[in-house]
Amino acid sequence: MPADREGARRAIELLLREYLDERLREIEKLDGDCGHDLVAPLVEFTVQGGRRMRSVLAWWGWLACGGPSEGPHARAAMGACAAIELLQSFALTHDDVMDNAKLRRGAPACHVAHAQAHEKRGYYGESERYGESMAVLVGDLALSWADDLLRESLSELTDADEAQQVWRDLRTELMVGQFLDLKSQARGERSEATALRIDRLKTASYTVERPLHLGAAMAAASKATVTALRGYGADVGVAFQLRDDLLDAFGAPEHTGRPMGEDLREGKNTVLLALGLELAERADDREALRILRSVGHREAASPAEAARALESVGAREQITRRCARLASSGLGYLVELDLPAAVAEGLEDFARTAGSA
Question: Which residues of 280-302 are buried (b: 16+ CB within 10 A; e: fewer)?
Fold first, then answer.
């Protein structure tokens, strides 16, 4: 199986398609409507959408630590890596309900699509409530299948206890990070320390560090190698989230697949916003303070106004520089590792992307 990013991505998609088509057939035998309305869209969302970033990183973690690229063990390891894609489908589906997000990957979010179907078909009850309920079911099913695929895949490997523990840690950290995100938003926090803790748990761990750790654990990597890969993942993962904060505030919707300023509109506690407030206070910029303090409130300034204020006080520039520093720091962990060429190139490219905010 290939090591380069595009080849690995295609191989993971083929494996996912095979696995999920079988699960869809099982559901269709139980109830055709459930298969058509609920499961088929989940299958397409999982197989057709996304960049496969987490699963490819897990695969690179496997290859980086001597895992074979061909044979039954390689296929089993790739199955475990692919399970992260189903975990991502669960996380995005539930996250969109919690955030009341309308779009996902340029299309109606799961709960919105089901609400629209409810209204179009003239069903009884509240369309929004129906849509959210269906999205909860979709997320639950994706999480169940993620666990199933991981367990089935690890059963083909010699010693999978550590990998199973990494999976447990990954899921738990994701949930704790989401809890802190919701609580911080509800409390109207503007704390850089809290925002960084959320980034560390919800993004850096889940997106980069733990996927690499999962692959390494399946390959029975040494402690030193695991430490290096996790160090890379922690730094580059935070850089990736800080870059995402910048894209939310300043990126074009046609590139991000979501409305600009969604986090600002929802009043999320991000490092970008917390730093912006600190810089505005330090400069005694009263207009920027007024705008940024209003974020998340009923009479809030528009996301575009908030973005301009963040740029004017220098928050955008500072976060951009921080992304670059974190990416460079992350790459420093890889210096002593003897990585396959395609893996080294992939990890370097990923870090450069995270650092090029």
Answer: beeeebeebbebbbbbbeeebbe
Of 228, 246, 225, 259, the C-alpha closest to 324 is 246
Shared-domain flag, residues 118 and 219: no
Q: What is the tally of structural domains in the chain?
A: 2
Chain segment 36-74, per-residue pLDDT in tens: 999 999 999 999 878 899 999 999 999 999 999 999 999
For 66, the domain range is 1-157
- Indicate if 114 and 172 belong to the same structural domain: no
Per-residue model confidence (pLDDT) at position 226: 96
Whether residue 282 is found in the same domain as residue 331: yes
End-to-end Cα spacing for the chain = 32
- The helix/strand/coil state of 301 is coil
- pLDDT attached to residue 260: 81
Contact present, 207 and 240 (Cβ < 8 Å): yes
Whether 151 and 124 map to the same domain: the answer is yes
Instruction: Name the stretches of the chain with pLDDT < 70.
Output: 253-258
Angle CA 93–203–311, to nearest 5: 100
Q: Quote the tokens at residue 142.
A: 């994706």
**Do 219 and 145 reside in the same domain of the chain?**
no
**207 shares its domain with 137:** no
Record the pTM: 0.93
- Compute the distance between CA of residue 239 and CA of residue 322 in angstroms, rounded to an integer: 7
Alpha helices, DSSP H, located in the chain:
5-30, 32-33, 40-48, 53-64, 72-99, 110-121, 127-154, 161-186, 192-198, 210-218, 223-250, 253-256, 262-266, 271-283, 286-294, 303-312, 315-332, 341-355
Sign, Cα dihedral of 211, 171, 236, 14: positive
Output the domain CATH number for residue 200: 1.10.600.10
